[in-house]
Design brief:
The chain is of the alpha/beta class. The chain is 44% helix and 16% strand. It contains 9 helices and 8 strands. The strands form 2 sheets. A 4-stranded mixed β-sheet has the order 1-2-7-8, sandwiched between helices. A 4-stranded parallel β-sheet has the order 4-5-3-6, sandwiched between helices. β1, α2 and β2 form a beta-alpha-beta unit. α1 crosses α2 and α5 crosses α6. The chain is elongated and about 70 Å long. Bound molecules: 6-O-phosphono-beta-D-fructofuranose. 6-O-phosphono-beta-D-fructofuranose binds next to loops.
Length: 274
């Protein structure tokens, strides 16, 4: 790849993914791996780095900066939205809208055929995607790690729903350590309450596609703020957005501290499913 100047980033605003070809690296987690990266930076005369990613990226960036003194600024970019120091991460809005479109499509079959569906969304260890796409999609039930529901409770809720005249239901499930676990949960529900079911794992379709307007604006705003921060010598921070304003959080805090779900939204989802 050549110089990343203005021309190099022309006409990509509507694309998903990354033109940089960056991806997770297990090698970078070792000090030997980072030493290799440091050598590359030094040979290229790079004094400052802008890191786009989630907690893993920022953890690696913090260590890299400590080990070689290069100035780093983080920009939160992950569909999971689980980064401390920003209300939203770049990619989250696109992912929830992709999940929402899928939930809407599935609802057509669920209603027509009077079926129970389990729709599994991404989110790693957190329920951000499930919570917002589930509420927006009118899911009857949500299974998220932050507000666990036992199979007994889930069966009870579904039975109550059906007693009250519902003919179909959609359960949005946040993937856990074990993506695909919805199949086990759905089967347990069937064994216990007899509901026939279908499972749909949305998986990596949530990771791509043309970004929403909201994501594009956020990325533009935070990208510009990151460049400004580097130029002003404000290394060691992540630029995020809190209550609509650019906010600077020490890079270490972004992966050491935990960002929780909006508790009021969790309560609202519980209220709606009762
Ligand atoms: O961290 C982003 C994420 O999309 C998670 O939501 C998901 O669990 C994971 O990445 C999938 O990773 P991979 O593409 O390596 O399977």
């Amino acid at each position: 790849m050549g110089l990343l100047d203005r021309r190099a980033v022309a006409n990509i605003i509507h694309q998903g993914g990354t033109i940089l070809g960056t991806a997770r690296s297990t090698e970078f987690k070792t000090s030997e791996g980072r030493a290799k990266a440091i050598k590359v930076l030094q040979e290229a005369g790079i004094e400052g780095l802008i890191l786009i990613g989630g907690d893993g990226t920022f953890r690696g960036g913090t260590l890299l900066s400590e080990e070689c003194g290069v100035s780093v600024v983080g920009v939160p970019g992950t569909i999971d939205n689980d980064v401390y120091g920003t209300d939203y991460t770049i990619g989250f809005d696109t992912a929830i809208n992709t999940a929402l479109a899928a939930i809407d499509h599935i609802r057509d079959t669920a209603v027509s055929h009077g079926r129970l569906f389990f729709v599994e969304v991404m989110g790693r260890h957190t329920g951000f995607i499930a919570l917002e796409s589930g509420i927006a999609g009118g899911a009857e039930e949500l299974l998220i790690p932050e507000a666990p529901l036992s199979v007994d409770e889930l069966c009870f809720h579904l039975e109550e729903n059906f007693k009250q005249g519902k003919r179909s239901a959609i359960v949005v499930v946040a993937e856990t350590e074990q993506p695909g676990d919805s199949f086990r949960i759905a089967q347990e529900v069937k064994d216990k309450a007899g509901f026939d079911y279908r499972v749909c794992i949305l998986g990596h379709v949530q990771r791509g596609g043309s970004p929403t307007a909201r994501d594009r604006v956020l990325a533009t705003k935070l990208g510009a703020a990151a460049v400004r921060a580097l130029l002003e010598g404000k290394g060691g921070y992540m630029v995020g957005e809190i209550k609509g304003k650019v906010a600077y959080t020490p890079l270490r805090d972004t992966w050491e501290k935990e960002k929780g779900l909006d508790n009021q939204l969790v309560k609202l989802a519980e209220f709606l499913s009762d």
